Amino acid sequence: MSVRLAIIGAGLMGADHAKIFADDLPGSQLQVICDMDQARAKAVAVATGARDVSNNPEAVIARDDVDAVVVASPDFTHAPLSMACIKAGKPVLCEKPLSQSSVECLQVMDEEMARGLRFVQLGFMRRYDQSYVEMKQALEQGQLGRALMMHNFHRNVETPAADFTGAMAITNSAPHEFDVVRHVLGCEYAAISAYQPQRSDARLAPVVMVLETQEGQLITIEVNNNAAYGYDVRAELVGEAGSIAINPVSYTRTDAKLANATAYEADWRGRYAEAYRRQNRAFLRFVKTGNFPEGGSSCWDGYCSSVVAEAGVRALNEGCKVPVEMIAKPEFYA
Ligand code: ISE
Q1: What phi and psi values does residue 20 have, to the nearest 5 degrees?
Q2: pLDDT, tens digit, for every residue of 268-303?
Q3: What is the pLDDT of residue 1?
Q4: What residues form DSSP beta bridges with 245?
Q5: If you take atom 4 of ligand 1, which residue's CA is the nearest one?
Q6: What is the tally of structural domains in the chain?
Q7: Could you tell me which of 330, 305, 332 has the C-alpha nearest to residue 102?
Q8: Is 10 part of any domain?
Q9: Coil, strand or helix at 105
Q10: What is the pTM of this model?
């Protein structure tokens, strides 16, 4: 039987999720596309063959003909809409971050724990990207020895929104890095420092973070949301016996005019297309079986990256190293 889906938010990511389900994932049926902007919802519905449109997310979540929900609306709506899904007993694939407030993440966790069942899969899609999968395997199979450091670069062509600040680079972009490093290394953080180089327009300046894990490993993260040249994500994991780095992902190389060139994607949708497909396929299996996807990210992971982001923003604003203090992991998320 097909999983009848509602997509809430018909912006960049909502449209992308709708396209992935419609084009690549048999076993799903797009039932409703919901957006405040009805023209935008209709355009996505027409492009993907979705049956209906709406501008009322709560009503959509409650519909009898909706089995599961994808939340891809603005960041501040993620937690309340995920909670509405839990209350309605419907699985939800929620875009990251779960919330920019760790307290709100705890509220979603409480709601889920009170129901005694897992409902929320968080959209940290990098966990499904082949390069991070291989990195994690190499570490677990002992090829690198004990992990010492992980270096991460996260570059966007330009800021996703005109009002994007250094703090937002930490709360909106960096959570991918916070999450995938925890996932690959199997670690939790102990402290974070954050810095910005001088740039003519300070608002556009990159952010560089140094994190210490509870096991004493060092993690560096550069988020440059105005890199201008392309969408470029790099990572290298350095162990005591070897290191593993992500190769640039590109099918072709052009040789001409005494030079060779490979292309960059314009943004994350192309670079992580296969990771999104794998993630969304895992979500459909979750809806059908009730078994939370192995290695998928949960509310607990959303909480962890939100705590780190809060500490990172403080470190940036106060110019000091800030401890990362989290609650003990509830047995429910073990
Ligand atoms: C955006 O919200 C995403 O989630 C992208 O994956 C990330 O690369 C980008 O920096 C974020 O702004």
Answers
A1: -60, -45
A2: 999 999 999 999 999 999 999 999 999 999 999 999
A3: 81
A4: 236
A5: 173
A6: 2
A7: 305
A8: yes
A9: helix
A10: 0.96
